[in-house]
Amino acid sequence: MDVPFSPNAPHRRLNPLTGEYVLVSPHRTQRPWQGKVEAPSRESRPAYDPTCYLCPGNERAGGLRNPEYKDTFVFTNDFAALLPDTPTERHTDDPLFQAESAAGLCRVICFSPRHDLTLAEMDVPAIRKVVDLWAEQVTDLGARYRWVQLFESKGAIVGASNPHPHGQVWASTFLPNEARVEDAQQKHYFDTFRSPLLVDYAAREAALAERVVVENDYWLVVVPYWAYWPFETLVLPKRHVLRLPDLTDDERGALADILKRMLVRFDNLFETSFPYCSGWHGAPTGDAGDCAHWQLHAHYYPPLLRSASVQKFVASYEWLAEAQRDLSPEGAAARLQKLSDTHYRNAR
Questions:
Q1: pLDDT tens sequence across 69-101
Q2: Beta bridge partners of 104
Q3: Measured between alpha carbons, how far is 103 from 90 in angstroms, rounded to an integer?
Q4: I want to staple 226 with a disulfide (CB 3.0 to 4.6 A). Which of 15, 30, 46, 174 is the partner?
Q5: Strands 20-24, 323-325: parallel, antiparallel or unpaired by DSSP?
């Protein structure tokens, strides 16, 4: 006898952007935890740190000195992973030992001159300047490179090497793995349904509302149906937009507003400076051809699971078989939905 489907029982969800499944096991949130516990981040940082290589006027690790910048600041990474001038010849034709040249350019983006702020604690006008700088970088680097990846690693727990509020942009002549897969999946959906995948998805999520964290007139933030990380979110425009530079003035202002509201909720969840890895995916740049199947979006991947001191680890089953999560996406969204728009540091 077939048992009816239940979202409270173990089941798999398909991620249409990757074509891969996530095993969801909601009942496991009740299991006892005796694993590793991280100390919660309670540090209090000064507005200016003379030892920080990202603060205004300070000497960087590479020997150059920062200007006395007053809002946002971008510079070429002193220890870049990609370089603009690399050999173009293939390494070998052996099918088991394939390699090819990787050329590109890497930059660092300082969000604020203040060492003690994160995006969550910056005001909306300051975040708007970051949005504009992101768009400028895509325009500039996109004229020369096929892919422009904006990203941020926030918090020592995810490997951030400096607590000063900053992100990075890596531009490359090649389409990275994640972008290549998303390109193929969105193209397949568009060819099948004649509509962009994430435009349809945003409309469905807005109508259902059960995984919506915050929204405004132009943007939607959801815990995606296929989320892997406990409090993973997806930031989506409500209209069809290919790249950040295509956003209108109103959409840029609304993006700053929605990011502020989402990131404050992250911090309020466990009353800590919430760590995450995040990044923007937009249509390929350069001579990319027809990209009508693409939709601009941002991924936020926070590792915290149960509290400010317990993170999710990738378990052996996941390395060897399939991604798996315990907390349901609906449960995660519900917890984020009910949190205040006022940062916990300012609520006392």
A1: 999 999 999 999 999 998 877 777 888 988 888
A2: 172
A3: 13
A4: 15
A5: parallel
Alpha helices in the chain, H assignment, sequence order:
124-142, 177-193, 197-208, 249-270, 316-320, 329-337
Residue 208 CB: number of other CB atoms within 10 A? Answer: 12
Domains of the chain, CATH where assigned: 195-346 (3.30.428.10)
- 166 in catalytic set: yes
Judge whether 40 and 308 are in contact, CB under 8 Å: yes
pLDDT at 212 over 60: yes
Q: What is the pTM of this model?
A: 0.94
Residue 33 has pLDDT above 60, yes or no: no
Q: Which of 125-129, 166-170, 314-318 has the lowest mean pLDDT?
A: 314-318
Calpha distance 187→22 (Å, rounded): 22
pLDDT for 74:
98
Tokens representing 64 are 């150059």
- Residue type at 34 in one-letter notation: Q
pLDDT, tens digit, 9 for 90 and up, residues 303-340: 998 788 778 888 899 999 999 999 999 999 999 999 99
Chain position carrying tokens 């995984």: 211
Torsion angles phi and psi, residue 108, rounded to 5: -110, 135
Helix (H, G, I), strand (E, B) or coil at 158: helix
Q: Which of 115, 166, 281, 297 is catalytic?
A: 166
For every residue of 177-241, DSSP letters joined together read HHHHHHHHHHHHHHHHHSS-HHHHHHHHHHHH-TTEEEE-SSEEEE--TT--STT-EEEEESS--
Taking the C-alpha atoms of residue 197 and residue 240, their distance in angstroms, rounded to an integer, is 10
Residue whose entry in the numeric block shows the structure tokens 């995606």: 224
